[in-house]
Structure formats: structure tokens, C-alpha cells
Design a protein that fits this description.
A seven-stranded mixed beta sheet has the order 13-12-11-14-15-17-16. Strands 2-3-1-4 form a four-stranded antiparallel beta sheet, covered by helices on one side. A four-stranded mixed beta sheet has the order 5-6-7-8, with helices on one face. The chain contains nine helices and 17 strands. The protein is of the alpha/beta class. Helices cover 24% and strands 34% of the residues. The protein has helices at residues 13-22, 69-73, 93-105, 162-169, 189-194, 206-218, 232-235, 258-264, 284-294, and strands at 2-9, 33-35, 38-42, 54-59, 80-82, 85-88, 112-116, 129-133, 138-143, 146-151, 177-180, 198-203, 225-229, 243-248, 265-278, 299-312, 315-325. Keywords: Cytoplasm, Methyltransferase, S-adenosyl-L-methionine, Transferase, tRNA processing.
Amino acid sequence: MEVPCVRVPSEAGEQTRQTLADADLIDDEYEISVEDGVLYIPVTETTGVPADLDVVSRAVPERETQTRPADLLGFEPSYERLGTAALLDEDDDGRAREIARAIVESELPLETVLNKASKVKGETRTRDWEVLKGEGTETVHREYGATFELDLAEVYFSPRLATERHRVAEQVSSGEQAFDMFAGVGPFVVPFAKRGATCVGVDINETAIEYLRENARKNGVEDRISGICGDVRTVAPEYEEWADRLVMNLPHSADEFLDSAVQIAGEECMLHYYDIQHEDDPFGPGARAIREAAEPKYSVTVENRRVVRSYAPHELNVCLDVRLER
């Protein structure tokens, strides 16, 4: 069976394998193979693979020695992986515990299994979790060469947005001034800083900011990141006309903070605006809200419209990359 593989010379194989592993892109169901001095590394998806790597379709042997949860259950369970944690969304307690047992007994490198016990709630966007296996809700997640420590019961974090965060980070240049208005534990500002940007991350959640500062230290960029706990509308006057790049990842209510975004934006600023809208017009409401807040002070150019993921029936999570020029 042919699967997508990253093709790389053997001498660069280990570095490339580590890069793909950090991004959680290696497909554990297939073996890494080598032929004529070339390594073929199977990947789970191609969209997240760095653009400078060569992706080909190739037949590689299946990994026969690894016991997967599906082998123990007799069906394919649904879960997300975050670091060494597996995240379930099961209403049936018996089924959830059966899946948790199979995950821990499998040969996957997963030590903790959590089941969602509430919806995302409150201004900090956290949720309750039931610990089915493991010691608690803290984990360490690796993403495109960056490491993030976090507690899922105390902060908001979505592993599904890794590819989107990487897409934005690749646009960042050394020397930029980047501002994340809802920074969480730092999944945008840490990779920005690793690319040489000076960053400010603001969040209303004090625990998230504590993790952001720790993650900045873990990734060796604490000198380029300022973590501020507070309402960004209060912080904005201190950073008036400061930012070359702005991230607004609060999709249900980002429009309420656009006046502050305009205040923070510099002479020319790239705004990454996240929204959730009906599929009939997913981009229009956000574009209109940005123009209403920014014009005539800025000319507004929507450079990219991107569907990030399906959020709910007939609702899409989208991003608008918008250039503001004075």
C-alpha cells in the first residue's frame, strides 16, 4: 500500500525524523525504510510537513510489532493525542474506560487518558476532565520543534491547530514585533520568538501566562517574550502603534477586541483574525468588522482567506490574514 512519505538523504535522516516527530507527523503504523542512500519516513498528513521537505507516495512495510488500541478493542477508537496524553470525548463511561485501558496497554507512548467532562466554559475557555488513566491533567506537548508544558484543566489548548500555528509562524521574520492578544501558553509567540521576533503575549488566565513564561524558558526564548496577565483592552494603550504582526485567536468574540487591535497595530501590520461563522458566508462578517474598526485610519487588504477546520454542523473555523497599512 502506498502512503505519503518524506524523502530525504540518509545523512539528514535523523534530523528530519526528529523534526517530523516534534510535529507529531510520523505515521507509527508503517516502517521507516531506506533505499540507495535515501530515507522514506511515513507521515500521517502532508499539509503540516515543512515546505522544504520532499513528499512522495511510496509503498512501505506496515509495522507489525506494535500493538495498537484497535488491536485490543476490535474497533478503531476516536481520540486526540497531546503529548503523552490521549483525549477522549465519550458519553458512555464503560466504553470510555475500555478505550482508556486499551490505550495504556497498547505500545503507543501514551501514559494518561482523559475524558471530556464538560464543554469549554468561561472567559478562560477551560473545561473539566475525568482522569481515566494516569496521574493528572498536566502534559508536555511537542510541536514543530517547540515544547509546551500545560495543564489541560487550567488552560485552553487545541492540538488540532498545530498546522495552522505553523503556517502563521513560517511567515514571521527576524526583527518583527509580534503581539498575541489571547496568548494562552504561548503556541504562537514561542515559535515566533524562535524565528527571531520580539513578542508580547497577553491572556486573562494567570495560570496560562505562568506556563507561557515557563515555556519561553524551556525553548530558550525568554529574552524575546513578555507574558502579561490581564485584559488586552487594558494593556493595549501601553503598546500603541507597536506591532508588526497581530494574532487574534478568540474566534467566538474577537470582533469585540478589534478597537484594541487597531490601537496596537503599527504603521504596517499583518493581522491574523480567527472567526467562527456559518458556511454560507464564513469570511464576510470578519472582513466587515475589521474594515469598520480600522478604516479610514488604515487601508485594509484581505490577503488570505483560510478554512482552518469544521467547527460544528454548517459552521466553520476560519482565518483572515489581513494587511493593515497606515
